[in-house]
Amino acid sequence: MLPSFYSDWKHVFKLDPDREIDDDALEAVCMSGTDAILVGGSSGVTFENTVDLMSRIRRYEVSCAFELSDASCGVPGFDGYLIPSVLNTRRSEWLIGRHVEALRDFGHLLPWESVAGVAYLVLNPDSTVARLTEAEAGISNAEAIAYSQVADKLWTVPILYVEYSGTYGDMDLLRDIRAALQSAQLIYGGGIDGPERAAQAARFADTVVVGNVIYDNLAAAIATVHAVKEAVKE
Ligand code: 1GP
């Protein structure tokens, strides 16, 4: 497969347009050596707050992508766009329905060479994304692996995102999902609070996403960059 804007991502910081980040913290994040900033959030994302955050990130050279889950927030100018579908949602709109509506109305505007679909497996039942999408997050490991294989082997999605947003996930399950994948890039996100967990997740995931800790403990967040890069070398 041809390399894409996300192929080289080992470490990514996820910034939420609906959360405050001051200029010093933003500079630290953008200059950290991370591979990309992914802009996105499960609630409160608007066209205005996305434009605002993107233009602030654009002061730096770091690559910047947008997780586009609502067509009305389709801000142009990002290096890439990830369009999520939730594999284990109970509501088909989050798997395919919204996507059909968005492409019907805006498909002609999308920069397709910089767009990729992402299959989310949502595994923290207490997360905003699980509640919003009514995800069946309390599934067995065997089911989680089966979902991953449906996405990877049957649908050949480019990216599988194992999402534990807000809590640290089951690394044994992540290892087993990794082993079951054929070609999808494996992204892990959730509960990475510092370098140790970042390094653990990097053993199995192609890409490690760090979110909340940016806002709670900036120094610990920055330390995850080096930890992931070192783990990848091993
Ligand atoms: C959220 O996977 C990301 O979509 C990161 O999760 O905020 O828990 O780090 P955290």
UniProtKB/TrEMBL annotation:
A Gene Ontology biological process term: glycerophospholipid biosynthetic process
Pfam families recorded: PcrB (PF01884)
Binding of Mg(2+), residues: D16, S42
Residues reported in the UniProt entry to bind sn-glycerol 1-phosphate: K14, Y161, V162, E163, Y164, S165, G166, G191, G211, N212
Gene3D superfamilies in alphabetical order: FMN-linked oxidoreductases
Enzymatic reactions: sn-glycerol 1-phosphate + all-trans-heptaprenyl diphosphate = 3-heptaprenyl-sn-glycero-1-phosphate + diphosphate
Pathway annotation from the record: Membrane lipid metabolism; glycerophospholipid metabolism
Enzyme class of the recorded protein, top EC level: transferase
Keywords tagged on the record: Lipid biosynthesis, Lipid metabolism, Magnesium, Metal-binding, Phospholipid biosynthesis, Phospholipid metabolism, Transferase
Annotated EC: 2.5.1.n9
Cofactor (UniProt): Mg(2+)
Example of a GO MF term: heptaprenylglyceryl phosphate synthase activity
Record-linked HAMAP family: GGGP_HepGP_synthase (MF_00112)
Self-association and partners: Homodimer.
Annotated function: Prenyltransferase that catalyzes in vivo the transfer of the heptaprenyl moiety of heptaprenyl pyrophosphate (HepPP; 35 carbon atoms) to the C3 hydroxyl of sn-glycerol-1-phosphate (G1P), producing heptaprenylglyceryl phosphate (HepGP). This reaction is an ether-bond-formation step in the biosynthesis of archaea-type G1P-based membrane lipids found in Bacillales.
Similarity comment: Belongs to the GGGP/HepGP synthase family. Group I subfamily.
Name of this chain's protein: Heptaprenylglyceryl phosphate synthase
Source organism of the structure: Cohnella terricola
Name of the gene: pcrB
